Amino acid sequence: MSLDKKRHLVHRKSFPLSIVRQCEILQIHRSGIYFKPKHESDLNLHIMRLIDEKFLDCSFYGVPRMTTWLREDMGYFINPKRIERLYKLMGLQTIYPKKNLSKRNQLHKVYPYLLKNLKIVRPNQVWQTDITYIPLNRGFMYMIAIIDVYSRKVLNWSISSTMNVEWCAQVYQDTVE
User: Fewer CB within 10 A of the terminal residue: the chain, N end or C end?
Assistant: First the structure.
């Protein structure tokens, strides 16, 4: 049973058991019965909209740079801790090149390029696949496409909120059938 359902089972008035005893039986904290969560303020909602618009253009803006932009360009005096909290609330993560990505791991096997001397002269001789992501307001979606190299025709494509092997294999199987 979910926590919200348990909280709704607690009777506050005219019940033979006290609230303390009801919470013990349901194994929930008494403070959760009285707590009323606050919603985001209008200012925070407005700042979140500004962050969202700027982040779509400049996804490499982290908390410090976004704070500077909001302070200097938009005229808001905002603490970086607030921006960091809003980034987490919105599910935003800065996109930037990570450290040492271009260095190859010596332990990984290097596979030969099998199409090196192959002349591609007809459709369905060689297929290729591409996986990319599509940025959205609340995160992003993954897209896979299977393309015929000769005709450059998209044979199949799919969009998913998560990227896993089963999804990629299913798109391939659907293309083959």
Answer: C
